[in-house]
Amino acid sequence: MDSVSSSSFLSTFSPKSSLHHSLLSRRSSSTSTLLLRINSAVVEERSPISNPSDNNGRPQSKTKKLHSRTNHTVVSSPAKHRPEMTLATALFTTVEDVINTFIDPPSRPSVDPKHVLSDNFAPVLDELPPTECEIIHGSLPLSLNGAYIRNGPNPQFLPRGPYHLFDGDGMLHAIRIHGGKATLCSRYVKTYKYNVEKQSGAPVMVNVFSGFNGVTASVARGALTAVRVLTGQYNPINGVGLANTSLAFFCNRLFALGESDLPYAVRLTDDGDVETIGRHDFDGKLSMSMTAHPKIDPVTGETFAFRYGPVPPFLTFFRFDSAGKKQRDVPIFSMTSPSFIHDFAITKRHAIFSEIQLGMRMNPVDLMIEGGSPVGTDNGKTPRLGVIQRYAGDESEMKWFEVPGFNIIHAINAWDEDDGNSIVLIAPNIMSIEHTLERMDLVHSLVEKVKINLVTGIVTRHPISARNLDFGVINPAFLGRRSRFVYAGVGDPMPKISGVVKLDVSKGDRDDCTVARRMYGPGCYGGEPFFVGRDPGNPEAEEDDGYVVTYVHDEVAGESKFLVMDAKSPELEIIAAVRLPRRVPYGFHGLFVKESDLNKL
User: Fold this and answer.
1) Which residue numbers belong to the known binding site?
2) Are 475 and 486 in contact (CB under 8 A)?
3) Model pLDDT for residues 306-355, shown as the tens digit of each residue
4) What's the rounded Cα separation, in Å, for the pair 2 and 57?
5) Has this prediction a pTM greater than 0.85?
6) Which residues are annotated as a binding site for Fe cation?
7) What is the DSSP annotation of 568-581?
8) Which of 17, 84, 257, 346 has the highest local Cβ count within 10 Å?
9) 372 DSSP assignment
C-alpha cells in the first residue's frame, strides 16, 4: 500500500501557504517590484525567510513574489543587482536577440523557456545564505551529521531565446545537519562561465543543448561566438562548463561536476555556506573534461572516470589512485562514432560502458533539412556494452557486446560473478530513446538486470520492475560489489519524481522486485533519492540499515521540504521532515557528505 498517497504528506505537518490569485501590478516608481518575463510567463521575486537573529529586531524588508500564471504558486528569492552592460555587450545582446527572434525562436517545447521553466523547474533568482530550517516532524538522527547537497540547473539570467533543461548554471542546495539542527544554503558554482556572465550583466556563452538548432542557427550563433572570443569577451580555454549535474567526494576534495568541463572544487564552511574554490585539473594531468559520474571504490579508495567527445577518441578511460594522483589515459578507438555516454559502472575487475543510440548528428545536410539539436538518435545503430579491465594499459583488452534495444543513461551498480567470467549490471533501460532530449515526459525507463558472459559472449537480461524508474542509487559501500537493494525515483512523468521505491534485485527473474515504496502525494514531487548508512563505518551493518533522503516540493502549497526515510521500513517511513526556508527547484544528482569528510575540506 502506498503509505502517502491520498492527502499530501507535505501539507500535513504545516498550514497551507496563502495563494496569490490576482495578477501582480507592474513596477511603480516608489515601491519597486521587479517584474521579469520569460516570453509570456510572468516571474516576480521575494526575499527568503530570514532568521530572526539576522535582523537584530529590525522589521524584515518587503517581500517580492515569484508568481506563476499557471498555478499562482508563490516561490521566493531575493532580488539581485545587475551590473551595467558595456557597449560591446549591449551590441552582442542585440544581435543575439535578432537570432532568437527571427532566425531561431524557441519553436519546440523542449527548448521553449515557457515550458521548460514552468512550475518548480523555474529558477530561484538569487542565492540563499545559510538559513535556519524548521524541523516539522520527527527528529534528525545523529548519523546524518554532515551535509546533503543537491546539484541542478538554475540559469543566472532568464533565457531570452531557446533554452533546454540541461543548459542552466549549476546551483548547489546544501542542507547542513549538526546536532539535530539544519540550515539550508543555495549557492551558484562560480564557474568561469558564471563569473564572465555576471561581470557582463548578460548571457555570453552559447547554450550547448539548445543553441544549435539547424545549420542556419548554428552558423549565426557560431559567428557571434567567434566575435565574442576574438574581442576578448571570454576565453574558451578557461572552460565553458556549467558544473550543474552532480557532486563527488574523492581525493579529499568535494567537486561539483558537469561532463562538458573539468571538475570545480567546492567546500562547505562551518556555518553551512558553500564556497567555490576553483576549476581543478589535478596538477595539469586532467584536460578537457570528465564525466559527472566518477566511481569511487569504497574498498581501495581509487576513483575511476572517463570523458567522451565529438572527435576521436570518442571515449577515454582513466583513474585516480587512492592518493588522488591521476593515472594515464586509455583512449578507446574501437568506439567509432560519437555516442552520448553519461554514466558507466565498475566491478572489482572491470569497467562497463554503454554505447547507445543517442549521439552527435554529424551530417550537416540532415541538420539543415530537419533542424533540431546536433544531439539526436540513430535508429540504425545497435547499442553495445563495452567491458575493459579496470587496470588496462590500452584498449586491446576492450570487449564489445551487442545488446539490441538496450539504451541506458544511468548505471546503478555492477559486480563480477562466476570467478570473474560474468558480469551483472543493474541499470534503467530507456524504452523510447528518441524522446530523451525532446519529450522527457514520454520517456519510460525499465530497470533491468543484465548478465554478460565474458567467455561465450552471451548477454541475457530481464526487467525487475514495470514502473517508470530512474535516478537509482544503492548503499555506496556496495559499489562494484554484489548488492541487493536499489532505491529509485518514480517518474510521473519524467523528469518529475512522484515517489521512491525500494527494489530487491535478488528476487526471482520473473518477479517484480519492489519491496517498499513511498509516494509523496498529489502535487508533490521530489528528485533523486540518496542512501545514507546508519553506521557507515561498521562492516557488519546490514545493507539497508540506514536512511533515504531527498528534497520534495509541494506545488500546491509552494513549499519545499527535506525528507528522511527509514530505508528498512516496508513503507519507507518518514522519520524526519524539515521545512526549507525557500523553494528548492527540481534538479539532478545529490550527495551526502559526512561530518568527518567535511572537516577535510
Assistant:
1) 293, 342, 410, 589
2) no
3) 999 999 999 999 999 999 999 999 999 999 999 999 999 999 999 999 99
4) 45
5) yes
6) 293, 342, 410, 589
7) TSTT--EEEEEE-S
8) 257
9) S
